[in-house]
Write a structure and sequence with these properties.
By secondary structure, the chain is α+β, with helices and mostly antiparallel strands. It has 19 helices and twelve strands. Strands 1, 2, 6, 7 and 8 form a five-stranded antiparallel beta sheet that branches. Strand 9 and strand 10 form a beta hairpin.
Length: 583
């Protein structure tokens, strides 16, 4: 739900301007309207302030100045190089590099070679080692048609001693970084907060019109209706002139969402697409429950749902810390609960089919989805879950079209949305009439004449009155074009929901395949080895399946929401969040 806003226009005498802004910032409830982006971004002082803020953010994220980071990185690179050199030197065994240099000074230069063990010949030189199917040897003369290996600088033991020394240097560099963070990080955070406040102040200043040769300052802002009493109480004490009005349609009114705890979990999903305009409906109350349902259908397994519930709880209680899921424990728990419930009704539990399991009571099987189509789990010739996916898609799209008609009527008036209502009546009314006819066994004539009436009224709205005041022939042409787009688009949109059935089916089949593979390893007479193999295969298989299922269960429901639902609901998502001017 979008919180109602009030628009305020302030007219302030120039000497009272900065004190009044200070009061507004202390109160922290007014979203100041900014001018067009180009007028603000072109200001040199603001650009310098933004650059300074970016530098502070980078330094805080980096955790230390470039010099200290470079020192530690250099040691890290030296350690990696030393480890590689130690690995290369290990094949030559223990040797004294100084002794090799003495032999070279005496006129005996050692040449280092490697070759496949099967191809090595004793007359080539002295064999030093054999490893990995290769023979390593040295020769006193250069061998033709063979590539010489550079002589190792040190033995592996010497390199390992070098690595230990470098680790000490790394620890020292890391200690200097930690000490710098303790000494400077709090101050940097304070500087960043101050820089943000200065930027906000400059943006407000740049968004203020100077009138009467700079004597008067005029600017606008928006305040949520629940914060209106606080603002009005402060304004009653201030020496400023102001006007309070309802936002106009053309105003860039910010939005503040006000939803219950459950819907609030899904607000980040709305933000991924774009926040609603002030005159739009908040899509989150619809997006949230349907996304949860879609996700659960794609997972299709109660066991996986329980795992998600556990993982979400651990993240929510900070017992499991994963940066990419920070703050998402609540929504993961909700998705886990939904997947557990829907997964049970679908009959899946870690790849097992509960509907065919002998240990599951018949009373529980009677409430599973497969009972909808009888004992074979089919409705006619089609799988019951596929039919359910299509039905859910039809409901989702019909709901979107209903919301579109209401939203457009609220914004543009009924006169300009007759065509939208015509399509809604034709599709939703036709489906509802057919369902009522089949459910209550209405006489065929009643159903027929009702559908004819719906078609006639809808045709008038779609082809004749779709654009009041326009040439009727143009209206008919526009109606024909809308008919082509609607007929082809709706069919594709509805069929898109089959993915809910396909993903759930694929996850269940893959989970069952891992169970079958594990049982084959376990065998009829299990022992310690086969039990360990069974546990490893089943654990790895189901973890992999869960990860893939979660990826698909996130992406595809999001696509159904962002494409099929938002397109048919007319959602724009170009709004801007309420961001009050405050400390």
């Amino acid at each position: 739900m979008i919180t109602q806003m009030k628009k305020y226009t302030f007219l302030v005498f120039h000497r009272d301007y900065e004190p009044f802004l200070t009061q507004l910032r202390e109160l922290g409830v007014v979203h100041i309207t900014q001018k067009a982006a180009g007028l603000i971004e072109d200001d040199a002082d603001l650009q310098a302030a933004l650059q300074h803020e970016d530098e502070l953010r980078r330094l805080i994220k980096q955790g230390a100045p470039d010099q200290l980071i470079a020192e530690r990185n250099e040691v890290t690179e030296r350690i990696a190089a030393a480890k590689e050199a130690a690995q290369q030197a290990a094949v030559w065994g223990e040797f004294n590099a100084a002794r090799i240099d003495q032999l070279k000074a005496a006129g005996y230069t050692l040449h280092f070679y490697e070759c496949p063990s099967k191809a090595f010949r004793e007359e080539w030189g002295i064999k030093v080692n054999e490893a990995g199917g290769k023979t390593y040897f040295v020769a006193l003369e250069t061998l033709e048609d063979m590539t010489e290996i550079p002589a190792p600088e040190k033995s592996a033991t010497q390199w390992y001693l070098e690595i230990e020394h470098l680790k000490g240097l790394y620890a020292a560099a890391d200690t200097r970084i930690v000490a710098w963070q303790k000494a400077n990080m709090d101050d940097l955070q304070a500087q960043l907060a101050e820089a943000r406040q200065n930027i906000d102040w400059q943006k407000v200043n740049l968004s203020t019109d100077k009138l009467a040769e700079g004597a008067l300052c005029l600017f606008e802002g928006f305040c949520p209706i629940d914060k209106e009493p606080e603002l009005n109480a402060m304004l009653a004490q201030a020496q400023v002139y102001y006007e309070e009005t309802d936002p106009a349609k053309e105003d860039a009114t910010p939005i503040k969402l006000h939803n219950n705890w459950f819907v609030k979990l899904f607000e980040p999903l709305t933000g991924m697409y774009g926040w609603p305009n002030y005159n739009e409906f908040d899509p989150t109350p619809i997006l949230g429950p349907f996304f949860l349902l879609f996700f659960a259908l794609c997972i299709g397994d109660a066991g996986y749902g329980l795992l998600l519930l556990l993982i979400g709880y651990l993240i929510f209680t900070n017992k499991l810390k994963i940066d990419m899921f920070k703050g998402m424990g609540g929504i993961i728990m909700a998705l886990g609960v939904g997947s557990t419930i829907i997964g049970f009704f679908m009959g899946g539990f870690f790849g097992l089919d509960l509907y065919t399991a002998s240990w599951v009571p018949d009373s529980l099987k009677d409430i599973m989805f497969k009972r909808l189509g009888g004992t074979d789990g089919k409705i006619g010739e089609y799988d019951v879950m596929m039919v359910m996916a299509i039905v859910i898609g039809v409901i989702h799209i019909c709901l979107a079209m209903t919301i579109k008609a209401i939203a457009y009527t609220k914004r543009d008036g009924f006169r300009n949305t007759v065509s939208t209502w015509g399509w809604l009546l034709l599709i939703v009314g036709g489906i509802a009439t057919a369902i009522l006819g089949m459910t209550f066994s209405l006489p065929t004539d009643i159903v027929k004449y009702t559908l004819i009436a719906i078609g006639a009224v809808s045709a008038l709205g779609i082809f004749i009155f779709n654009k009041p005041g326009r040439n009727p022939l143009i209206n008919v042409g526009a109606g024909l074009w809308d008919t082509y787009q609607m007929s082809t688009g709706l069919l594709g949109d509805v069929l898109s929901y089959i993915r809910l059935y396909a993903l759930g089916l694929a996850g269940g089949m893959l989970g069952a395949a891992f169970n079958q593979l594990g049982n084959q390893v376990l065998g009829a007479n299990p022992n310690v080895g086969t039990i360990i193999g069974f546990v490893l295969i089943v654990t790895f298989g189901h973890v992999l399946n869960l990860l893939m299922a979660c990826l698909g269960a996130f992406v595809h429901p999001l696509r159904l929401s962002f494409v099929e639902y938002f397109k048919n609901s007319g959602y724009e998502g170009s709004g801007k969040l309420y961001n009050p001017f405050k400390k």
